[in-house]
Amino acid sequence: xxxxxxxxxxxxxxxxVIAMFQFGFGWCLxxxxxxxxxxxxxxxxxxxxxxxGVASDFxxxxxxxxxxxxxxxxxxxxxxxxxxxxxxxxxxxxxxFLVDTLRSVAYIREGKTPFGKRSMMKSxxxxxxxxxxxxxxxxxxxxxxxxxxxxxxxxxxxxxSQGIRWFPEEWFSIGTRITQIxxxxxxxxxxxxxxxxxxxxxxxxxxxxLPRELKDEG
Length: 218
Prior knowledge:
By secondary structure, this protein is mainly α. The chain has one domain: Four Helix Bundle (Hemerythrin (Met), subunit A) (Up-down Bundle), CATH 1.20.120.1760. It contains eight helices and no strands. Helix 3 runs parallel beside helix 6 (about 135-160) and helix 5 (about 125-130) runs parallel beside helix 6. The radius of gyration is 19 Å and the shape is globular. The two termini are about 35 Å apart.
């Protein structure tokens, strides 16, 4: 229950963050600080569930749902402000629907879960890319970096328009270029982590047409 409350809390907070971005420079900086908390709570809810021994299938699925809501809201907002290309949320949203649909099919048909002992992941490469500590930390760090850096870009653009200049504009330009590189690195990781799930998940979609022996080979 506590873990699910944390998930609900970060969903509420992301709406608050977007509302804060509508105001002045100081509010935008506050929104960036709150963004760090929102993304930290992403790791906290799973930890709390494991620590209290209350991890459940629903909790795992709800946690993923919370992740999707948070990341999509940020990406759509940053796209609407012109900070990132439309391609970025398009890739994330398409990947999310495809992967989560396969996970739902696997759960409904065979009781398979995204992670854990009854994971739908069949191959070692899929398990490494989607659930290993290294890949999850790498992907989580890049997402945290781009959401915070894009938020800072938005805040300082607003600050410049209000005559607030904390550092030379050349520094801002360099930071913007670095941020864009990280955005596309994150898009690449999003695709790389999604494709193996689609490959393993093909068995759940085609189970009526594939013999059991072939499905078990995955």
